[in-house]
Amino acid sequence: MDWLRQLLKQAGWEDAKIDAFIGDVNKELPKHFVPKSQYNELSETRKKLEKDVADRDKQIDDLGKTAGLSEDLKQQIETLKTENQTAKTQYEFDLKEVKISNAITAALTGKVHNEKVVTGLIDKTKLVLGDDGKIVGLDEQLTGLKTSDAYLFKSDDQQQQQQQPGIKVGAGKTEPPAGGQLSLGDAIAAHFTK
Known about the structure:
Layout: H1 2-10, H2 15-32, H3 36-65, H4 71-108, H5 115-121, E1 128-129, E2 135-136, H6 138-148, H7 156-161, H8 184-192
Antiparallel strand pairs: 1-2
Helix pairs in contact: 1-2, 3-4
């Protein structure tokens, strides 16, 4: 969040106000944004499963055209229909699991010492995925864990001191090369380090 701190300093904000504002942003940001890696993972899974369903539907249509030829083909069609229904059910189950896992990860990010340990203590069978995409029951389990196993959770001070991942503006070379022109990245970095 160094880039945000620099922008706020340039806008004339005091350091105390900047620290408070960035602390609020760090608390609220995970509630409204999904990490790019999780989005990409879910997107790729969805594309693959949709392609699988489309391939199976095409197989059924192809077999349906020649269904009058024999009873064996009719049996194959029924088998493929059953497999498609099973694949659809599995897809829906897997999608629900991914959503629940992502919600747990988002709820724990930056708040615990070891996400894997705390995730293992959460009973996923008691979690319900609502129509709005919210996970019902997660907050109650986390509250219970904070009471029973408080040592697993970071204090508010530790959460604020945690360094945020990202790109540090101005970390690279800011001197123009021999030709006198900067790359776009270097020009942006040079602007923010002034």
